């Protein structure tokens, strides 16, 4: 982004970085840093919801993906059709979550932010139950925004964590909405977004200063 490089930075020698390319940029001094991070497939090694659906709901998942790709469902409507009333109780879910590994750098990232007093927030279009359990499993602590999961007679009941009609993402927990609200409350904040999602991370990336 124009204006964030220091004067002695080569700025990729006049070229744009390629997709998936890594680079270090020296940011000019700005307001306090805040780091927003996707969870599934970023902070964790696997997407929890995707892994559950592939293992236990493969036929429904395939049918819903076709409808989503045809534009018949929003991302949140897809999640509702897939998981609301899912007969998978808390005990079984806890056992499944025990197999979910975090990225090798996850603990180091949280500790880096803690030592430097950088605000750190997980933004997830997944579910709060999973995030709470995975924090306990892996002895890590973070703040988060996510969708809500509870159980009724062993079946899932889900609610959106942050629908945003002003955004086209269609997710239950719009990352653009969270970042824009944080920026409104902290006008000088320098917002960093980390994520790899093809749906839920695009709008968060657009709202951030550095991606």
Strand arrangement, major sheet:
4-3-2-1-5
How far apart lie the N and C ends? 9 Å
Anisotropy-based shape: globular
| Mean pLDDT metric | 90
Overall helicity: 25-40%
Unreliable stretches = 1-12
% residues in beta strands: 15-25%
- Overall structural class, as computed from helix and strand content, comes to alpha/beta
Order of helices and strands: EHHHHHHEHEEHEH
Question: Which assembly state applies to the chains in this document?
Answer: single chain
SS element count, helices: 9
**How many runs of DSSP E, i.e. beta strands?**
5
Largest sheet: 5 strands, mixed
What is the C-alpha radius of gyration, as a whole number of Å? 18 Å
Task: Characterise this structure.
With 211 residues, the chain is an alpha/beta fold. 38% of the residues lie in helices and 17% in strands. The protein has a 5-stranded mixed beta sheet with strand order 4-3-2-1-5, with helices on both faces. The longest helix has 12 residues, at 58-69. The protein is globular and about 45 Å long. Mean pLDDT is 90; it is low at 1-12.
